[in-house]
Design a protein that fits this description.
Blueprint lengths: L17 H13 L2 H35 L2 H50 L2 H5 L3 H42 L1 H7 L3 H38 L1 H6 L3 H26 L2 H25 L5 H23 L1 H19 L19 E11 L2 E11 L15 H8 L7 E6 L2 E2 L6
Antiparallel strand pairs: 1-2, 1-3, 3-4
Length: 420
């Protein structure tokens, strides 16, 4: 049995490209314009402080080596402490700002998702478990909030890398190229891993939604379950769903947790290259000891974000998959379609069905070429067996469902043209 058996997409699910998702997500952040600008400025300052620390140590070692006095060492220690303190304060401000920004974004996204959920017609809920809808509004929006923190962190480190590379190129171009030798390998691995991560993450989130839906439906119907002594049956059903969720997320975890060890091995090769080439350059007098230290520290600060970019791809893909599920709920096409919005004023109560065909599902016809006219003030009783379509007639008049053929008129006007 496949680990992913029973985890099919919902009928309204759709696949969005990264560009489409970003285009849908961006308006939520654009509404937080001033906070976004402030956060970017803080990230730039943090990157400057982060890049400044290894440069300060590298140049400071050469200065202390030349000066040789105690005050040079003391000044270097104080300067490093000041830069570290500035970085910590900027990070605190940035985290505080992002917490409010992300909170507002998630709140507006939840409001939109909930508004879409209550706006969908009853036909939507005939094919969708309400527990899965709840999971998208609550769990998936929280998963999406983690994406912002990861993206901000990676952006900060990429800015820091650019600053460091500018300094390193000015010191020694050859050593800088050796330092960057493993970067293409890491980036190629990140791009290839992206597709696997999105697929596994989407499956894992569907599994969790299945569990949430099962719990909600079981608790909501507990009275019926106990009346018919079906506790064991409900338990067995939940156990099967929970096992599928466990298997799907275990497989996801096994694959995704292989990323960081592989990248660490690639990073080790880069460290070996820089240590070897840097040592030869120092012995040959091409660069100073302080510059060699700066290259070693820069390698760590360049490789670590690259590793994070791939290992964090799990969280990034989780956030994008969550956004995809949220927007699929919001964008679900209604089955009840009004062709007009004429105001309803004085209703006499003349209801007429003209050759109406209706079915809840494609293989379950309920009404076939049904015609009936109910005069104003007339009382009509519908009699028939369960499933004959008695309640369906009322639901069609109330526009809870869309009929497939024919017309329903209210006082001579097509119901699809009225503002109901």
């Amino acid at each position: 049995m496949s680990w992913f058996e029973g985890l099919d997409a919902e009928s309204y699910d759709r696949t969005y490209s990264d560009r489409e998702l970003i285009g849908r997500i961006w308006p939520y952040f654009a509404a937080q314009g001033s906070r976004m600008v402030t956060a970017m400025v803080l990230v730039m300052l943090m990157a400057g402080a982060g890049a400044g620390e290894p440069m300060l140590v590298g140049y400071g070692l050469d200065w202390v080596n030349v000066d040789g006095r105690l005050r040079a060492s003391v000044f270097l220690v104080v300067a490093i402490f000041a830069v570290g303190l500035a970085w910590w304060f900027l990070r605190w401000l940035n985290r505080r700002l992002l917490a409010r920004l992300v909170g507002d974004v998630v709140r507006h996204m939840q409001v939109d998702a909930f508004g879409a959920a209550i706006g969908h017609d009853l036909a939507f809920y005939d094919q969708t478990d309400s527990g899965k809808v709840v999971s998208r509004i609550t769990s998936d929006t929280q998963e999406f909030s983690q994406l912002v923190d990861q993206v901000t962190h990676v952006f900060y480190q990429l800015v820091e890398i650019v600053m460091l590379l500018c300094v390193l190129l000015s010191i020694d171009v050859r050593m800088t190229l050796w330092l960057l030798a493993v970067v293409p390998v890491v980036l190629a691995f990140a791009v290839a891993f992206r597709y696997v991560a999105r697929h596994l993450t989407r499956r894992g989130m569907r599994a969790i939604a299945e569990v949430n839906a099962s719990v909600k439906e079981s608790v909501a119907g507990i009275a019926v379950t106990k009346n018919f002594r079906q506790e064991q049956g409900v338990y067995d059903e939940f156990d099967g769903i929970n096992r599928r969720s466990y298997d799907a997320n275990l497989w996801r975890g096994l694959i995704l947790n292989m990323v960081f060890p592989i990248l660490t091995g690639i990073g080790g090769i880069g460290v070996g290259l820089v240590v070897y080439q840097g040592g030869l350059s120092v012995l040959g007098g091409a660069i100073s000891v302080g510059a060699w230290y700066l290259f070693l520290q820069s390698l760590e600060r360049i490789m670590y974000p690259m590793m994070q970019l791939t290992s964090f791809w799990t969280q990034i893909q989780t956030g994008l998959a969550a956004a995809e599920r949220i927007f699929a709920l919001i964008d679900a096409e209604p089955t009840v379609c009004q062709t007009g919005a004429e105001p309803v004023t004085d209703v006499r109560g003349d209801i007429q069905f003209e050759h109406v065909h209706f079915r809840y599902r494609e293989e379950e016809p309920v009404l076939a070429d049904f015609s009936l006219r109910i005069q104003p003030g007339e009382t009509v009783a519908f009699v028939g067996h369960t499933g004959a379509g008695k309640s369906s007639l009322v639901r069609l008049v109330a526009r809870f469902y869309e009929f497939q053929e024919g017309r329903i008129l209210l006082d001579g006007q097509d119901l699809r043209e009225l503002d109901l």
